[in-house]
Design goal:
Two copies of one chain form a homodimer. Chain A starts with 18 loop residues before the first helix and ends with a helix. The first copy, chain A, contains eleven helices and no strands. Chain A has 208 residues and is mainly α. Chain A is globular, with a radius of gyration of 20 Å. The first copy, chain A, has two domains: 51 residues, Homeodomain-like (Arc Repressor Mutant, subunit A, Orthogonal Bundle), CATH 1.10.10; 128 residues, Orthogonal Bundle (Tetracycline Repressor, domain 2). Chains A and B meet through helix 8, helix 9, helix 10 and helix 11 of A and helix 8, helix 9, helix 10 and helix 11 of B. Chains A, B: Keywords: DNA-binding.
């Protein structure tokens, strides 16, 4: 809106961000990411468009392209933002080794119990289960990085395999509790789940 | 086709099966179920219609209504057929109690490793994760029955909760291995998975 030089060269390339949008800088990037997260969460992967994200963020669609590229790349960035808390797993992994399973189970459930993080996580999982492009992002980007980080902190053989088995258990719990809402798991107290699940995670992550 | 009395009373109710179709009896029912399973597996819950199932089965749509009712009810019946092997869990639960986790893990993986059963299972899981109607069928019908049957055979407190935690682990493994295909789990040898997962299942199902 302000500060754009009216006589700057303006090549007619399609998808180039407008001066107004480009001038909005890092704030616009943050707004686009937030909008992308919401759009993917609310509409699902299929029905989300670059145009819709741009509209929700109050920027040109060209600026979304400019910062992130394709829809898949916007999705990857939105997923990364969502998983940011999970990517700082070393805080979970850092405590006494014998409490690792319990800390991980509690951390995982706390992320899912919070509606603000649950909704984008649900959207990501749903998208990954129904769209190969989204599955690829989760598989090749998020999960791989996450599992490698966890595995790097573990002192067990086959650490990545074990980390993935632990992840599979937690993803299964999220699926039954939050997506399918099957009882008795759906209504169980989180601490009751932690108490039951922690030893299984501990075995994967802490036993040689 | 044969044996339909030409002067049978024929109320003009919409959705009444044609005499030709109705006369096909149990074979038609089986064909409809097989077609429903294939249609739901290939098209997903959303894009599957009673009309499409009828066409695939070579019967009137009215006959599908006649045998099964609504689309949700056809889905429930198709899911039940798919889960039939899983519903005879007493064969798995019947052996020595100390091998229960291992037998269950091996049985579960063998069902998913077989492409003939994997494809409808994938379709059911995908449908349940994206459509509330399908989730309801899985939650209220299949999972509840399955968990109750398993729990009835267990000699542990909170048997249904424990059975569901075991199920959640297996569903999570199926999600990462067969749906998202995340490595190293996607390429792991089934027996390698059984060896790692069996003690976790054993703890849920066999320990007081």
């Amino acid at each position: 809106m302000t500060g754009a030089s009216p006589d700057a060269p303006a090549p007619r390339r399609r998808g180039r961000p407008s001066r107004r949008a480009a001038s909005e800088g890092p704030d616009a990037r943050t707004r686009i990411l937030a909008a992308a997260r919401t759009e993917f969460a609310e509409r699902g992967y299929d029905k989300t468009s670059i145009r819709g994200i741009a509209r929700a963020a109050g920027v040109d669609a060209a600026l979304v392209h400019h910062y992130f590229g394709t829809k898949d790349e916007v999705f990857a960035a939105a997923v990364e933002v969502t998983f940011e808390p999970a990517l700082v797993v070393h805080t979970v992994l850092g405590g006494p080794p014998e409490g690792l399973g319990e800390r991980l189970a509690r951390f995982f459930l706390s992320v899912w119990e919070d509606p603000a993080t649950r909704s984008p996580l649900l959207a990501i999982l749903r998208s990954a289960l129904t769209h190969e492009a989204a599955a690829k992002v989760l598989r090749e980007f998020v999960l791989r990085r996450l599992l490698e980080r966890i595995a790097a902190e573990l002192d067990v053989p086959d650490a990545t395999f074990r980390a993935e088995l632990a992840a599979s258990h937690m993803i299964g719990i999220a699926t039954l509790r939050y997506m399918i809402r099957a009882e008795p798991l759906a209504s169980a107290d989180p601490e009751e789940i932690v108490a039951m699940v922690a030893p299984a995670l501990q075995r994967y992550l802490g036993e040689r």
